[in-house]
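INTERNAL TRANSFER SHEET
From: sequence group
To: structure group
Subject: EXS domain-containing protein

Please process the attached sequence and return the structure record in the designated field. Keep the field labels unchanged so the import script can parse them.
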Amino acid sequence: MSEEAAATISAFDFYLPLPYRVVILINAGILFWHLNLLTCRNFKIGVLNVLKVSPQELTLSRLIDRSRKCLVNITLSNICNYSIYYFFASNGFELTLIDWLPLFGILTTFFILLHDKSSFESQRLLQTMKRVIKGDIDISMRNNDILLTDTFTSYNKVLVDFLVYVSALVLGMSTLPSGANLSKELSKTHLQLYNIDLLLANFPSLLRFRQCLKEYNQSGRQNIRHLLNAIKYSTAFLPTISMILFKAGYLKTRNLWVFFTFINSSYSLYWDITNDWNFGFFLKFLSDKPNVKLLRNKLLYSKEAYVLAIIIDFQLRFIWVYGLVFVDPSSPSPSTAAKFFTTMFATEMGTFVLECLEIFRRWVWVFLKIETEYVIMSSVSDFIELQSFD
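Return from structure group:
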């Protein structure tokens, strides 16, 4: 990149423009799922049992092989796609069609995942996506649907970035650096009109909220846990409402946003640890029962892994607190920590890092969620019935 170009656009925005961040994060999710499958195989965790897949329909070996092939093909495709962009951008060429490259890469990714109609894996994924995008849930394959929808909630900011990119394409805006005079990073202002970006970020939580209410109704309104879970997802809407009111001038400070965000983070952390992972961590301190364990009786990973997972979940659920503590735009001489967290919370590079961290947190959550569900299923008959790992 030339010196003139460097003065026009930051190195980060040149080498990793917003549309390609979306491509990378989708690719990362596929990589993480493959690692989940490998870990389940190594620890003899029946992931297919959890997903309600019979050995006649699919074996774990075949699923891992299919996952590996998809991962390799998608990664190679995206590398080639990015290389074309980089060649044109670094050499000062200007071509409108280049703006469409990331969209082509995203469509190619989903084509590779879903195109094979003879593949059980592709058809299961396609059917699941069709259900969850409407907020529906198949009770007979509950874990299958929940894993995908909850993962989608961690991609909420990636969804907004994708819609920023696609809407810019539709409006005829330049979405990638190109030409001799490189444009600035793709602006998000057109999607911030009427707070559309904030509302869209809540769409995945709305889907999960609807699923919980549907489960509650299907239980004859007897299973209060589904209602409490729905309330948990509804708390994700409160920070959005308070931020909209703050931007509109109805609130003078962000104190209400801080309060609602704290409620959402605390409720979500409690639910992760107590319900999704079935740990007695909070119950140990909230109840007077002496026999409650910090974790649980049956563990398939090492204890250190569970403790680390809890720490990661806590830190990343409350990472927004660092922005409140350290970021002070009015400070004349900010500390090193303040500079670091200002970069984290006030720049596009920081936004990308936060998106990566949230997807990493979800990856950790999926590890323990699958393991927990398998332990629960196995405990019904007091022994672990291992699936075929051929």
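Handover comment: The CA atoms of residues 15 and 86 lie 8 Å apart. The chain has two domains: 1-150+175-186, 254-380.
Transfer complete.
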